[in-house]
Write a structure and sequence with these properties.
homotetramer, alpha/beta, Rossmann fold, Dihydrodipicolinate Reductase, domain 2, 2 domains, ten-stranded mixed beta sheet, six-stranded parallel beta sheet, 9 helices, about 35% helix
Chain lengths: ~350, ~350, ~350, ~350
């Protein structure tokens, strides 16, 4: 039975708390938050948990084996280091840190202390995303050509990071997980409409090997909440709408067939000539998706990694990769949308 | 009673024919097409119309007062010039020409010959787009901050122009009409997945005065047909979905209010301090929109301009503006998405 | 080449005209209507067709082989008889007549004169309905238990017949076609809110053999247009939404499994004991449906029957069956919703 | 601070527990359930609550002021009586009892013991339903003509009551609340497809004063979950979709205008003559609805009634009215859908 502490009970923390409480083989012993009112609120919901304003109370409790860090991004590095130094396994909210330098230091510290360092890339634990990975790996969609992602809604406006830091970690972690590839270049455009110098709307183009590209639109300034990913494969196309309660994935048996004079074009590809593009538009398939909550799967995986010495799916390296993409996107943004190379691991 | 001829009965021509046939004060006398099978098909539908493979037969008919040019883009300039030289008023499919040079020559020729030169920017005649313009002009949305446009579906793949030339004229003409502004700069990214060197998927960012930006996604390679425009104003937000049969426009009484310690931020705007962003999320309003077909309105406007010597809403200059944006977008595309200035008229 | 005449160019007639015009192996020679303004309107669209106010002009034309009767229900019988007497094949709008007596006389007259008598039960020619019939016949859905049909919208209010006469012929013809069974009993409730004594909203329950029931809601008084049929089978469930442009049919792999202590209940069905009802909720499948217009298929089938001496799918008997159900529904309505037996053929 | 006990932690009980736990001015002290596994499950979630298999332990605790009865319908009467006899205020799940006789006895016992007797007609505490009541009372919709309600999905199959007992209490309580009228007559049809003699699909027609009718479709056997109410008023129409997360209510500015020769028909209503029915189809309005959970409002109202001696909105009489309608519906069902009069209070 692992004793767990949660540092930060603001926007996301309560979801972490709720999930660890529902898991049998752990004991959520401590929570901390800087705000009295948050502590009061949480205490009302969970009278049996201990609360403190000082996260060191948690780190100093020798019974605590693991801590979850759900605080603002700028504090991730320091709290993470403190926790590792006290011998705790750590689970950090995305993005892992505000710089790749810091991410690397955390990775090193975790390795040296032989502790689990995991990042909460929740989407990698989504049954729908796993299903999509299966489809891609089985070749169901054919070669993936392009991916289009939309993650927009009105607010929540962050004050310390822009919308890119806030939202694209989800999309990057999905992309890298699904394609098994890191993007190599990024072009990003964005604008700050509401807060000075904090972009609230951005569009990114990511370029991968084999001419695969992905486009991501993130915004805090859209009247409709949208969480949509469109994957165009050479054989089939797939749309993932994460807001659909039960019909998250639609597989379209649609594609383009290239012909010449009725004869499949591949035979004549080198010759010069007119060809016709036939659109094939067939059935649509909506697979049943397991309904477990991604966050719950993620929490269980963290405990499983601790108990069985496994490497997390979303480990420190995974967190670092996301930060590298965000940093390059920021660089492009600051340089008039110039194309920027993304450093590999 | 104006006698009208239609040159080109391929993809869009039949819609032109159908509409002119439904209008009382004109007589659709001639149609031409290079393809025998298209002529045979159209003859079956309209036995009282005269058909020819040679459009000069139409231009040489002295009874013909106006011609519509619904042929591939690359032929617009020559046919347009021929028609003007023969003293016909002309209505040209979008985009007006394949270069701004040619567009200017057509404009000059029309002026010199005192003929109407109109471009089929159909969307400017859409009752929904007119309604949106009313909202913007009345200040209903407040200052427009950003516009996001999606125009995607599977096919129709063009063979002589890429997806930018094919689809963004609609969006540019809507934007310029709604905002009353030309975009000043453009960044465009795109990729050709199916046909070599003909982009089938592209994302454009347009920058206007006052930090207004617009983003356009056009694609021939998406499983779902989408025609959606989101306009974010400082007071309200509006979504225009042109595929909705009756509920094309939704006005969201949503916005962001900037406060500081509960006191409206405007009083403290220059001071340094923490502020809070309140999201306001209110009622949604779906106005009743007139159901006349935009194309029908456009055809009637063309005849009205001829008969009453009016300047068309979508005149040659309007056509030229669209081509200037497309040319700049192409330049950006060919230069690794570098930001390109758009020439003013 | 059959010469065709269309009698009645009001609400539905123009659709008939448009379709026969698009078919090669026939010539739409004549149209009639009592209203000058309708004739003028139609003449504008089809200058090559002959128009008259007196349908006898059509019947007296010896070149005319077939007529379509698209007039108000109350006139179907007389015009139908006149046409048969003049040796014309006839296609009559649904419902065939306003009484089963009249329907039988028409059937007899057609048989005696060896002419085709067909009723425009358009839905039996819908590719979607055909697809559903295939699913049922292949046993894909398992035994059909119940069918729920909704056919509502605002207007078009008829003045000579109530909403039952107006709308349920569609649903009855679908049901009889799909199930291969006539309903045996009907209970109907309805109310007249807008016009005195002309019901504008009604609910019918139809009982078939084997405890199969169907429920139909028809209304002229609903803010939303709905055309939806839900078929509950023992193995799967199917929803047919005729307003969906491309996704008309959804097959739900859903059902109920009856178990007792983990052992399938059927073994223990007669014993006394607690059992558990497991809901099975699986994938959803949206088949690609051919996009030909049902009305066009219907028109072609009429011509095919004439030329090749075939019996129409929706022949006079089929028309009579629908009238029998409507008559019984009316009787139930007039008798405080008492259950009424429906006469078999 | 009222101490509360919850009897029954099956399907609905956990929602009751969750809500009372979130309310400050009460203490959820006890829960009971007959099933060990349910108790174990609940204990895991709420370690600070006391659990028992015998509800008498709760009734015998003198600190307990109020109990919630969330057990199967057949046990409501006995447990309710026991609780009232022990001097507890009671909140009972709908329907209040399985017979109107029992409901009246409970009402009398509560009155005699001066205790609050409230029924969990959750929907009467829904902000959306309150909004609709406002619209009706302000005359926004004009005179209500007819109401159509659909409450269907796959399962949850009850074993002691049929789908009418299970589901229509929601709809009846909404109708009586909105219209301020009791239905006077009911016709009901239903069928048992899955369990012998337990109807799983039913359609009811309720007749009120002034020719107002309501139709309710309830089913455990539909592939789609639907919770929809359509209210047709003489001026406007309203659709309430309780599954919509934010857009629960749509007000359609639609209606029928009766005219004669262009002059409003009301002047000529008694004369004989042709009139025209004009459909008016205008804007749609989606009001912002408060997002508090109806169940939470209901729980707070119960505590408020106890503390301040108020009469609950959904008191015993309200519960009795619902049971009277259900009893009449059952009688109609058992008598071949004969129209049955509903006893007034």
């Amino acid at each position: 039975m692992i004793n767990v502490g949660v540092i930060g009970c603001g926007y996301w923390g309560p979801n972490i708390v709720r999930n660890f409480r529902q898991i049998d083989n752990c004991n959520l012993k401590w929570c901390s938050d800087l705000s009295e009112s948050r502590i009061k609120h949480m205490k009302g919901l969970y009278p049996s948990i201990k609360f403190t304003k000082d996260y060191n109370d948690i780190l100093n409790d020798k019974e605590i084996g693991a801590v979850v860090i759900a605080t603002p991004v700028s504090t991730h590095f320091k709290i993470g280091m403190d926790a590792l130094m006290k011998g705790k396994h750590i689970l950090i909210e995305k993005p892992i840190t505000h710089s790749s330098e810091d991410a690397k230091k955390l990775i090193d510290a975790a390795a040296k202390n032989k502790k689990i360092l995991m990042v909460d890339h929740t989407m990698e634990y989504s049954p729908a995303v796993k299903k999509i990975k299966e489809y891609i790996e089985k070749g169901e969609l054919g070669q993936v050509l392009t991916v289009d992602m939309i993650r927009v809604n009105l607010g929540v406006f962050q004050k310390d990071v822009n919308v890119i830091w806030d939202l694209i970690p989800h999309d990057i972690s999905i992309l890298v997980y699904l394609l098994g590839l890191m993007p190599e270049k990024v072009i990003s455009v964005g604008e700050s409409y509401i807060q000075k110098s904090i972009e609230d709307d951005a569009h990114l183009t990511l370029k991968f090997k084999n001419k695969i590209t992905a486009h991501i639109h993130v915004s805090w300034l859209d009247p409709c909440k949208i969480r949509k990913t469109t994957i165009v494969g050479r054989k089939k196309m797939l749309v993932f709408d994460d807001l659909e309660p039960t019909e998250k994935i639609r597989v379209y048996d649609k594609g383009v067939t290239i012909e010449k004079n009725g004869i499949p074009i591949q035979n004549y590809y080198d010759t010069f000539g007119e060809y016709q593009l036939l659109h094939r538009s067939g059935d649509i398939f909506i697979p049943k998706i397991e309904t477990t909550e991604p966050l719950n799967n993620m929490c269980r995986h963290f405990l499983d990694c601790i108990e069985n010495g496994k490497t997390p799916v979303s480990d420190g390296q995974s967190g670092l990769r996301v930060v590298r993409v965000v940093e390059a996107a920021q660089e492009s943004l600051r340089n008039n949308s110039r194309e920027v190379e993304i450093r590999a691991d």
